[in-house]
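PROTEIN FOLDING TASK:
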Amino acid sequence: MPTRKWKTRLHDAFFEHHTPAGRLLDGFLLIMILLSITVIMLDSVESLHEKHRVYFHRLEWIFTILFTVEYVLRISLSKTPFRFIFSFLGLIDLISILPTYISLFFGGFQTLLVMRALRLLRIFRIFRLSHFMTDLRFLTRAMRSSMRKISIFLLFAMVIVVIMGSVMYIVEDPKDGFTSIPQCIYWAISTITTVGYGDIVPISPIGKVVANIVMLIGFAIIAVPTGIITTEMSIAIKNRETGRDECKNCKKTGHDHDAMFCKHCGASFEEDEAV
């Protein structure tokens, strides 16, 4: 009986984020994740790596063991362990600890250690059931609603860069860097996105005119996806303020904007965390 009680408490701490124990654990994990990412970034600086690599190595193993214990506990405490293992957050947990173990047994895989930076994605677990998740849910919904419009926009942009790239291939001399249509398309993309690396520049008067047209189109294009997403966000926020958020389970509306559960069927509005 005491064992079951402790297991229940641990489950609440790991999976019930709105409890005091869950908030405390989330705060601790957030600090550990940020410290781990800081160590990874500092270790990538050559001068610091040569001087403090022993300390960085020890700290990395401390973080890895800590996250391994957390990962094992989440699996053992989960009501559906296999579902958790293959969930998005479960895979992120696994990928964040694997590189250190792989580099230990296989010396040629040190480059995989950069994948430890994926630990930063684990912050989404901490924000999952907090007030941040509500706004994130509306942003995700706006992105999904905008997907068709954005896809059409991207198709249009692709047509533009192919046409402009082909025109530049015709009007510019290959010795100036415009040696092929793919190379010219690369120039068109870097120009239309206002990046302009400067490694390839038009020389002929006609080429400069085309470049100016591409740059002007670029300014107009940048505003399009922003406007699409902003419009969808406004619609989502308006629906939230008027309490028209629909329950995916029973399809009923009329919920408060900060509601976490459906007042009709009791279903959670948060995405299933695979517990």
Remarks:
- The chain has two domains: 2-129, 133-241.
- Residues 271-275 have pLDDT under 50 and may be disordered.
- DSSP finds nine helices and no strands in the chain.
